[in-house]
Every structure is written in C-alpha cells, then in structure tokens.
Write a structure and sequence with these properties.
The chain is built from 14 helices and four strands. It is mainly α and 376 residues long. The chain has two domains: 2-41 and 179-375, no CATH class; 48-161, abc type-2 transporter like domain (abc type-2 transporter like fold, 3-Layer(aba) Sandwich). A four-stranded mixed sheet has the order 2-1-3-4, sandwiched between helices. The longest helix has 32 residues, at 179-210.
Length: 376
C-alpha cells in the first residue's frame, strides 16, 4: 500500500518539477500578491494634496497652515487665488481638499469667532472620511493651543479651564493602527485557499486531458490512494507558500507573530482540507483545466468578499452575514489574525477551529466520495 502511494506522490512531484513555469508561479505569485496588497490595500491616508486660498496672509494664518503642514495627512500642494481655483483643482483630481481662510482671519481670532472653510473631495469615501477626521482634529488641536496661549497671556491658569471629562484612548495589539497588520493575514489565507483548490483541480483534470488517468485506474492503485497521492504534493507546496508569506509578513511588514507557531500551522492544515476538497470536487465536474479554474473561481469570489478579507463582516447586511457562515475562509481569518496579533491560545478561538474542521472534513469527504464514484 505504502509503496503504491509513494509511487503516485513521486510521480506527481516529478510532474511538478518538470513544469518549471507552474512551479515558479506557485512560489512567486504569493510573494507578488503579498507586496502588492500589503502596500496598496491600505486605509492609511497620507499626504492628501491640499489647495490653499489664504486671503489674510497674516502670521496667524501661516501658523494655522503650519499645523496642517506638520501633520502627515496633508500636503500643501497649491496656493490659489480664488474658490473657483480650488473647485477646478478638485475636479481635475489634482487636489483632494481645499482650505479657505477669510481676509479678516486675524481679527476674528481676536474676537474669538474665527472660522475657516475646509472643502473635501467626497468622490472617494474612504479617503474623504479619513481626511475629514484629520482636518477636524488638527483644527481642534490648533484652537485648543490658541486658547491656552490666550489664557496664559491674560495671567490665568489654563489648568483651571480643563474640560470636566477626558477620554483617554488606548489601542491594543496594533497601537499604530497599521492596516497591513490586518491585510497580511488575509493575504496568507487567500493564498493558502486559492493555491490548493486551483492546483488540485487543474492537476487532476490535466491527467484526464492527457488520458493518463485511465492508465492509473487500470493499475492496482485504489481510488483513495490515487486521491491522496495526487493532492499530497500540493499540500507541501501550500505549506511552503504559507511559511513564505509568514516570513515576509513578519520580517518585511513587521506583522507580529505572537501566537503558537504549531497552532498556526495546524489551523492552516484545517483550511487546506476545504481548499483541497473544493479543488477535488471541481475536478469531477470539469473536463478541461479552464473549466476547472472557472469552477474554483465561482467559490473563490464569495470567499474573498464574504470572509472579512477586505471588508468587516459587521458592516455587511444581515443576509450576507448569514451567508458568510458557510465560508471556511471566514473562520481561518479570525483564527490567524487572533494568533498573529493577539497571541491567544486555542481556547479563545475554539469555536472557529471546530467550524473550520467540520467544513474541512465535510467538503473533503464529499469531494473524495464523488471522485471515487467517478473513477468506479
């Protein structure tokens, strides 16, 4: 039995090593995806180009602009002469925000009723909401600093005018709110899930296209040995990709690995069962490799968008949240993010582990039974 199984595994490894292009893609694509998504898929908005219409051109207005310039959120890119110029720059996409300072700004400060207008481009809701919050906070900080200076000049103690309530905010696990810390575990899960399902489906269909699977059927090899022998090399490749992605995420993007490494690999193995099962099931439906890939992608797209990879599940409609309960990748991302970021033990994520294991066993069992029936 073991000699027959080893022969199939050896044969599959030889085919993989002969196909240098596919092997290169399997090992290089995860790295490319990691860097592209790690840098591009981010909600950290910085250096928003700002158009300035300063009608006062006084010391006070320059100090206000210095406050915005000193923050990383805005870049004072244009100085304009009218509000229409701001509109034109925003319409052309050259500026994403504009600030209008009135001509009597310094006098308004003395009277205590100064106002400036801050215009934002809302066509990009994510960037617009972040810039809105940043502009508001910078303005409030500058206003508070002016109030303290005015109280000190008048001989009053600023401490006597402290607000009655102070909210001290603390961020755990990711104090700098680096979005790549959230994105990288998602990329790892997507790579692990996609590669195992796609490669398994195409590898088995390729045997059918070449007519070699019939030769394997007439040998003494049992159906389960054929299934196991075909998918085992891709399990190894998937774990290599996982280790590769974890290493780059940790050493390059500084994503912490606080949880038990063995538990991370064990839970990754549970996700592998679902990915392999989907690939195996797709191979029983498709007759060509193109059909196999399209069949797998029919399951990949819902998995990507309903797993919490890009968008938080809590923000989705209730019906989509219910559908996401049937997406194995959802549970793996909760597990991986908790292990990497929070360093929790198995008890804290036990429900997700059980759900992932159930999905893996059911999907793999059903796919293997269908594959065996087709061979018979």
């Amino acid at each position: 039995m073991f000699s027959r199984l080893a022969s199939i595994i050896r044969k599959e490894f030889i085919q993989i090593l002969r196909d240098k292009r596919t092997l290169g893609i399997v090992l290089v694509i995860p790295v490319v995806q990691l860097f592209l998504l790690g840098y591009s898929a981010t909600s950290d908005i910085r250096n928003v180009p700002l158009a300035v219409f300063d009608q006062c051109r006084c010391v006070e207005s320059r100090k206000l602009l210095d406050a915005y310039r000193g923050a990383d959120y805005f870049r004072l890119a244009y100085e304009v002469g009218s509000q229409d110029d701001i509109r034109s720059l925003i319409e052309q996409g050259k500026a994403r925000a504009g600030i209008i300072i009135p001509p009597d700004f310094n006098q308004q400060l003395v009277e205590g009723n100064a106002e400036v207008a801050f215009i934002l481009d809302g066509s990009d809701a994510t960037a617009g909401s972040t810039a809105f919050s940043a502009a508001t906070l910078i303005g409030q900080s500058y206003s508070t600093r002016l109030m303290v200076q005015r109280l000190e000049k008048s001989g009053l103690n600023p401490d006597a005018f402290k607000p009655p309530l102070t909210v001290q905010t603390r961020v755990w696990y990711n104090p700098d709110l680096v979005s790549s810390f959230f994105m990288i575990p998602g990329v790892i899960g997507m790579i692990l899930f996609a590669i195992t399902s796609i490669l398994t489906a195409t590898a088995i269909v390729r045997e059918r296209e070449r007519g070699t699977i019939e030769q394997l059927i007439v040998t003494p090899i049992r159906p389960w040995e054929l299934v196991l022998g075909k998918i085992f090399p891709y399990v190894i490749l998937a774990f290599i990709d996982t280790l590769e992605a974890l290493a780059i995420g940790h050493w390059w993007f500084k994503v912490p690995v606080r949880g038990d490494f063995g538990l991370i690999l064990g839970c990754s193995g549970l996700l592998l069962l679902s990915g392999l099962g989907i690939g195996l099931f797709a191979s029983t439906i498709a007759n060509t490799q193109q059909e196999a890939m399209l069949t797998v992608w029919m399951t990949m797209l819902p998995s990507i968008f309903l797993s919490g990879f890009f968008f938080p599940l809590e923000a989705m409609p209730k019906i989509l949240q219910a559908v996401s309960l049937f997406v194995p990748l959802r549970y793996y991302l909760v597990i991986l993010r908790a292990l990497l970021m929070k360093g929790v033990g198995a008890g804290a994520i036990l429900n997700e582990i059980i759900a992932l294991a159930v999905f893996g066993v059911v999907i793999m069992g059903a796919a293997a039974a269908r594959f065996r029936k087709r061979l018979d």
